[in-house]
Fold this protein.
Amino acid sequence: MNPIISIEQLSFAYGKDTILNSINVAFPKGKLSVILGRNGSGKSTLFKIIAGLEKNYHGQVWIDKKERRKIKIGTTSSVRVGFLTQFHQTTFPFKVSDVILTGRAAFSRFSPKPSDYQEVENILQKFNLIHLKDKPYTSLSGGERQLVLLCRILVQKPDVLMLDEPTNHLDLHYQVVVLQAIRQLVNEGTTVLCVMHDPNLAFLFGDEFFVIRHQELVAVRSLEQDRLKQLLEETYQIPLLALENQGTPIFTPQLK
């Protein structure tokens, strides 16, 4: 495995409340790695640490062999990291093309060049969203907004893309559309690290899988189905029924 992100003995606490404890993990380059777990388990905290939004941690986080605390926003780095947080709201009716264009601000110093506008056109074409180009962002559906925000990050051409619950609040159609877009990026060589709620969608689209429980991160890709089922039952605290979808294990709540 060729890791692009490595974590060694990572611990984090809010006061006396331990959130993460002695985590060791390596996320491979060019793969879609998914972190699963219950609400409040520490998934988003781990995301913030890797993204550089939270620096008050113990241990080491390496991105392309450089410790995360030493990578400053706006400085040149061998690996460009883009991230999409879970919540985003805007009340201003900016056009879709303008929302995506703001993703190029780091390159254009707020004076867009023809090449910046072309990058916006290219990304809209890539994901078949060109028909939304001149629509107000506020008029879009939740799924369309999420795709536009994804495009806003992608015009930065990140080497590593970090996504915190990218399918949150989306209906099933747009959950699949967004994950197919992410899968396409991975197939083209982008490294994606994704925090998700739904293990079934994760197993359908991901490459590597990890579960946060009891402040620790557990790799589950190599687990046999019975052990995986047991781990998920312990994590989500519900009995599960194991099924199969096109060779991929899926788990559904087993109701009494």
